[in-house]
Amino acid sequence: MTTANKEVNELIKREYEHGFVTDIEVDTFEPGLSEDVITRLSEIKKEPQFMLEWRLKAYRRWLEMEEPDWAHLGYDRIDYNSVSYYSAPKRKEDMPQSLDEVDPELLKTYEKLGIPLHEHAKLAGVAVDAVFDSVSVATTFKEPLAKAGVIFCSISEAVRDYPELVQKYLGTVVPHTDNFFAGLNAAVFSDGTFVYVPKGVRCPMELSTYFRINAANTGQFERTLIIADEGSYVSYLEGCTAPMRDENQLHAAVVELVALDNAEIKYSTVQNWYPGDENGKGGIYNFVTKRAACIGKNSKVSWTQVETGSAITWKYPSCILRGEGSVGEFYSVALTHNHQQADTGTKMIHLGKNTTSTIISKGISAGKSSNVYRGLVKFGPRAEGARNFTECDSLLIGDQCGAHTFPYIESLNKSAIVEHEATTSKVSDEQMFLCRQRGIDMERAVSMIVNGFCKDVFKELPMEFAVEAGKLLEVSLEGSVG
Amino acid sequence: MLSIKNLHASVEGKEILKGINLEIKAGEVHAIMGPNGSGKSTLSQVLAGNDAFEVTSGSVTMNGENLLEKETEERARDGVFLAFQYPVEIPGVSNLQFMRTSVNAMRHHRGESEMNAAEFMKLAREVSKQVDLDPAFLKRGVNEGFSGGEKKRNEIMQALMLQPKLAILDETDSGLDIDALKVVSDGVNALRAEDRAILMVTHYQRLLDHIVPDFVHVLADGKIVKSGGRELALELEDRGYAWLGIKDDETAANSAN
Q1: ipTM value for the complex
Q2: From A292, B53, B140, B208, which residue has the greatest number of CB atoms within 10 Å?
Q3: Domains assigned to chain B
Q4: Domain annotation covers residue A120
Q5: What is the mean pLDDT of chain A?
């Protein structure tokens, strides 16, 4: 065994900084799922009838669906009746009208997470929707955004206040029949973010949602819908954390993006759900369906993700490139450590003429983790002149982890062009020795080497988050050597 | 400054160094010559603390301190510098970032404040000129796509940036053409100082035309078999390693050079 590996194997006390629990009074449903539970959920949210019917239809269909097992993941089957499907902080009114009415305990929680919601301390230039377990507790910068015509609110509010928009687009990108987890989400989704950017508007600030799981034994099922109307632009970022618990918790989200003619959506994720401890106990099961429909001509969607958390990640942010000349991009850094398992990648479905897509995936495996890239590039019969470029790189730290690449390419059009590159490398003993010989300690050296490896993806993140992402990798790698 | 006594070291159970004794004083330049497989590179790696090699007996002290019980990075911060024979690439990490991290790690160790980006850039530009490297290379990944000569010049540049107490140069001349050899040698000569020792490991004497050593040692089969002054290297060139009863295929093959 080589020396770096010896060091790597002397595992690891990795500190998860967001593992605290907020002590707050909550309304929580008893565990279990039924039509009654869904009806109650819909009532609490004061949803219009169409929404309840939509949920029930999804639920009935879901009951007939099978949990998928094709992913390169090992975990005990989830008992969906042992999960609670709704948990929300108690409040006097059904919706806080202003931040003054938000429970100070909650404000403190977000402050601790580095997301100040107070008027005076708000993140400059970034509007935040804060989702706590099953509900959105606050949304900042609503007024200035409204002035620009941008709707930025929780999806629960949108269902009540903009039912026509919601009805027009909800489920059009990810139908409830799409897959098991998307079906479940359609039945029980609790909250999430809604964004509408009107024609020709460049959203004046970054939008973001911060998802926090707090309650034990509760699933989080958020649903996000972003619509960029013709010629508009929006950049959106989501962040996620959860307390450290010995039990696994389920997170099954659906994100739908719709880009009309000449619209552009940049969607960035920094996912740092609790990954479980060094023995693989606890952590979030993250089963997420994210998809964008580039329905307009020359529309563009970029997914950028930095995935460092979760015990299990099952996630394939995808683009359906229907509009002529539309562009899909996927930039991903997925880091797994200890016993984490990630099966992640993307699907680029080229339907329109001259559509292009770029996939850059960087997988980093440490400890005893498993890291899979799974990607589909598909060209429909009318995708004349379409092209894709894919680059998948894996970096191994130590010799007990695994990296796998499963690229699928299907082409029904002879003019389509695919380029694919893949590499696997190791943080080598020689690299470590060079760094250390120059006085650089091991942790710093690993973090520097890994950050170098991820450079192409980090440069796609909004500036302030690129720095965050770099730091997050550093924390996530803590103890991976020495 | 450096005192090596009866040093034995092995790799994967095979003994390579079989009792090295060497004293190097501050201000001196020592050259270690020897055929391939004699243990020259092993000696450099052991001194720098590469734990792929196991020290089985003997001692090494630097300025009175036991070097062998220190980690690689501690030795580096105490002033041990190794210019690698085959510098490794670190993709995506810029030379600038790498060197700045290194310089600041050393400064931190000495209780000095970190150099900011502007100060560092100024210094790096000056030093890069000294080794005839285009400052644009500072933005490239560490050794990424560098030619052999560029890699070697980069190593010397790092030595000049870090100003070590003991600079160990492992076959710094190998793979260099005459012009590059001149640049690298000028760099090394610029390192010569009263408070600094230089240990050069080389197969050929041609490097010693440019960097004139105070002492020359011949290493064979893990031991120093002969020591002398500058003239020993010249004699070796004339008569080959066989003169000392040492087998060396490569010298024989290259004797026409």
Answers
A1: 0.94
A2: A292
A3: 2-254 (3.40.50.300)
A4: yes
A5: 84
